[in-house]
Design brief:
With 183 residues, the chain is mainly α. The protein has one domain. The chain contains ten helices and no strands. The protein is globular.
């Protein structure tokens, strides 16, 4: 028991420093910019694609869902049956709605992370989309972005320090050092 208590006492200050100390804000700025850029580019392409938000909106979502549904068979399917049911009965009938939600959601997450406004909220919705892409059997950058966004969620108090969160939230909350951006 004594060993565990000593290990915890070593980890807590490091975790507190990494996720709550504004001296790490520059690190989180770099992470935020990278993740935000990835979302911004993905969203920008979708918003300007007719299959996502133009005359053929919903077509890309239908193709994505049909591809995911093909990954539901075998001893170890990439897509679990409960998620396949959700895709088939909730997403597919409303492909137009989900097409716009994905395209504009990716764009807004990217903008939010890049400018550092509501960083925790943007990271949450980015992580939510990544989880759904992973559940649909798509790997790509999703695991990497998901992990980085979880870290951004843990560091939300300082992740937006160099951004609009530092201005907006700095007016309402004092950061862990007791100083705000304006004092």
């Amino acid at each position: 028991m004594k060993i565990i208590q000593n290990a915890e006492s070593l980890q807590v200050p490091f975790m507190r420093f990494l996720f709550q100390d504004r001296r790490t804000a520059f690190l989180w700025l770099l992470v935020r910019l990278y993740v935000g850029y990835e979302w911004l580019i993905a969203g920008w392409e979708k918003v300007h694609s007719p299959l996502w938000s133009g005359s053929g909106a919903g077509g890309a979502v239908k193709g994505f869902v049909m591809g995911a549904l093909q990954k539901t068979s075998g001893a170890h399917p990439d897509v679990q049956s409960w998620y396949a049911w959700f895709l088939q009965h909730a997403v597919l009938p409303h492909a137009l709605l989900f097409s716009h939600l994905v395209a504009y959601g990716e764009l807004l997450v990217g903008i939010g992370l890049i400018v550092g406004l509501f960083t925790g909220v943007a990271a949450f919705f980015g992580a939510f989309m990544n989880v759904n892409y992973l559940l649909a059997g798509t790997v790509s950058l999703n695991p990497q972005l998901l992990i980085l966004q979880i870290f951004l969620l843990w560091a939300w108090r300082v992740a937006g320090w160099f951004g609009l969160d530092g201005v907006v939230l700095g007016r309402f909350f004092k950061h862990n050092s007791g100083a705000t951006l304006f004092h």
